[in-house]
Design brief:
- The strands form four sheets. The chain has a five-stranded antiparallel sheet with strand order 6-5-4-1-7. Strands 2-3 form a two-stranded antiparallel ribbon.
- 50% of the residues lie in helices and 15% in strands.
- The chain has two domains: 87 residues; 195 residues, no CATH class.
- The radius of gyration is 26 Å and the shape is elongated.
- Strand 10 and strand 11 form a beta hairpin.
- The protein is built from nine helices and eleven strands.
């Protein structure tokens, strides 16, 4: 256990100094954004040294989803609110100045990855996931009462893909929580300069992006394997149960509240899932009729043929 904790700590230390936390490095002239806030006020007159800020009364209003580009950045040291001013342009005729802190809190980088991160980090998404999880639990419980169908961990199928999917998802969630809690400036820099190449990133962030790629592959392989081993109605029910488990794993292991306890829970969860699959659900036989993998002799889950030899 101590070695595992040291391993995660080493990942953090190796990546902690990769990106500076200075906001000036987050963006540059000609970078594109769009307005995520409801509105934003721009001052038309350029701020000058030793000029009272309240004399800049002319303004332009921009509204949600307006595209923006950074045109100029100036530093006014005597400004007590924020010494950095940013000139942004909506078009050739709509341009103005705003404090850097207000600007950064009101915009999202015009990049699909950054937009996805922004959407995924919204608090309402957690409420949505909670509702989805509740619906899945109710649905699965009602189905269990009517028929005995396959469900991950309890009555699993003879494929390692679903188990591996939950373990890798948990790994991604706990890496994400580690980055947010221990090296948030690394994630902030990635938010403004995203890439899908894990080799161009700090070690811990590169591992996280690599795990996302692995998740995509595992999701495709899992769906294909489930529909191969089970009839369509049972496959859909099994995927619903798998989705519920994945939502629970994400909500638990991505929570920063757990702290170092999260690593212990992750180890227990991963070991128990893998051990239970290898002991109870690993394929040891093949159906003599359709060739589907089976836990042992008996009724095939795919074609319902009884295999006795």
């Amino acid at each position: 256990m101590r070695k595992v904790c040291f391993f995660f700590l080493a990942l953090v230390l190796l990546s902690a100094c990769y990106y500076p936390a200075d906001e000036a490095t987050l963006y540059a002239v000609n970078d594109n954004f769009y307005l995520s806030a409801d509105s934003m006020r721009l001052q038309t007159q350029e701020p000058l040294h030793n000029m009272p800020i309240d004399t800049l009364s002319d303004s332009i209003m921009l509204y949600a989803n307006d595209p923006l580009v950074v045109a100029q950045i100036v530093v006014i040291p005597e400004d007590s609110i924020d010494s950095v001013w940013v000139k942004v342009a909506h078009d050739q005729f709509t341009q103005g100045w705003i404090h850097q802190n207000v600007f950064l809190s009101s915009v999202v980088p015009d990049d699909p990855i950054s937009e996805f991160i922004y959407l995924f980090s919204q608090r309402h998404l957690w409420y949505f996931l909670g509702v989805v999880l509740a619906v899945i639990i109710v649905f699965v419980i009602r189905q269990i009462k009517h028929q005995h169908f396959h469900v991950i961990f309890l009555r699993d199928i003879s494929s390692f893909y679903p188990t591996m999917l939950t373990v890798v998802l948990s790994s991604s969630a706990i890496l994400y929580a580690s980055i947010q809690r221990l090296v948030p400036e690394t994630w902030l820099m990635y938010y403004y300069h995203p890439t899908l190449n894990p080799f161009d990133l700090p070690l811990i962030l590169g591992l996280f992006i690599a795990s996302i790629w692995l998740l995509v592959v595992l999701i495709i392989a899992t769906i294909d394997e489930v529909f191969t081993l089970l009839p369509i109605p049972e496959a859909i029910l099994y995927l619903f149960s798998l989705l519920g488990v994945c939502v629970v794993c994400y909500l638990i292991f991505s929570s920063p509240v757990l702290g170092w306890l999260g690593y212990l829970l992750y180890i227990v969860f991963s070991v128990s899932f893998i051990w239970r699959y290898m002991k109870c659900f690993r394929a040891r036989c093949i159906c003599g009729r359709c060739g589907a993998k089976m836990h042992g002799k008996g009724r095939c889950t795919r074609c319902k043929t009884i295999n006795v030899t």
